[in-house]
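dumping this here so i dont lose it
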């Protein structure tokens, strides 16, 4: 009867992605005040640390948040983080300006970080797919043109996001997939919180997801 609705979700989007809530991955509350900003560009990062076993992904994020907070940032520097298996984790609120140890103004940047060191390892298929999902969600939500999807090294003296991931920006792979995703109806990101979120994190840490 309603073929146009087949495959659509409650939000009307073709696809949905889950974002693991901060409480579920064991994040601490913010330790300081955020500065507000309006998102006008998307900037891709890597963690810069080889992640060889994805079971470690949540603990690496807890460690990053602790390090960032001890360095004077109110929270983990990024808005979204993505592990090697493509799980998406929520970072600081998107209305809050990001932070950096390098020299560029983070105001206006939606910061998306992929766990790993892409000078040393390649981005995985699932990680790249989730990255494109998050970037497509951001590009559509904040009306960001494809030319404002860049890597950290485009703004600061840094190798971030590493050679392999940066090459996917340079050769147009990420932009093409983002454009296709938006043209096919976009993606809705839904929070995975509470017991469900904690269960998924336990599964990730046990190597079962
Ligand atoms: Zn970076």
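and the seq i came up w/
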């Amino acid at each position: 009867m309603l073929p146009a609705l087949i495959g659509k979700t409650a939000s009307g989007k073709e696809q949905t992605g889950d974002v693991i809530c901060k409480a579920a991955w064991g994040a601490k509350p913010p330790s300081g005040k955020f500065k507000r900003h309006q998102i006008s560009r998307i900037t891709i990062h890597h963690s810069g640390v080889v992640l060889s076993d994805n079971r470690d992904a949540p603990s690496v994020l807890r460690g990053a948040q602790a390090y960032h907070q001890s360095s004077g940032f109110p929270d983990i520097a990024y808005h979204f983080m993505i592990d090697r298996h493509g799980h998406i984790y929520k970072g600081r609120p998107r209305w809050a300006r990001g932070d950096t140890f390098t020299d560029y103004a983070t105001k206006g940047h939606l910061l998306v970080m992929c766990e790993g060191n892409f000078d040393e390892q390649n981005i995985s298929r699932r990680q790249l797919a989730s990255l494109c999902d998050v970037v497509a969600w951001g590009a559509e939500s904040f009306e960001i043109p494809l030319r404002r999807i860049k890597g950290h090294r485009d703004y600061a003296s840094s190798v971030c996001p590493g050679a392999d991931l940066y090459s996917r920006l340079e050769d147009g792979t990420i932009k093409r997939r983002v454009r296709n995703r938006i043209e096919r109806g976009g993606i809705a990101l839904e929070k995975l919180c509470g017991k469900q979120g904690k269960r998924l994190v336990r599964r990730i840490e046990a190597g079962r997801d």
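Residues 20 and 192 are 5 Å apart (CA to CA).
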